[in-house]
Every structure is written in C-alpha cells, then in structure tokens.
Design brief:
Layout: H1 7-32, H2 43-47
Length: about 50
Amino acid sequence: MPLRYDCSTASGRADGLREAAAAAPAVDAFMDSGQDDADFVDLDDVLGGRP
C-alpha cells in the first residue's frame, strides 16, 4: 500500500503562515509605538476560578 500524505494539515499551516505574515506590519507598528501589553488581566480574575 503506498503512503499517502494528508495535504489538509499542510494547507492549514500554510494558511496560518500567510495570516501571520499579513499581521506582521500591525505587530511592527505596535512595537514601534512604544506601547506595552505586559499589564494584562488574568482570566481567572475575570472568569473566576476553574473547577
């Protein structure tokens, strides 16, 4: 039986890489703006503790 390659996952990865490349200018602009997203809100504080 010949080996088969599932292209659906490779296609999904390629889509993800294209999306990441498309977002790069926005990321660069955010970093260049001097803003900092280190002051985040913990989701446990927002949603409450998890069971």
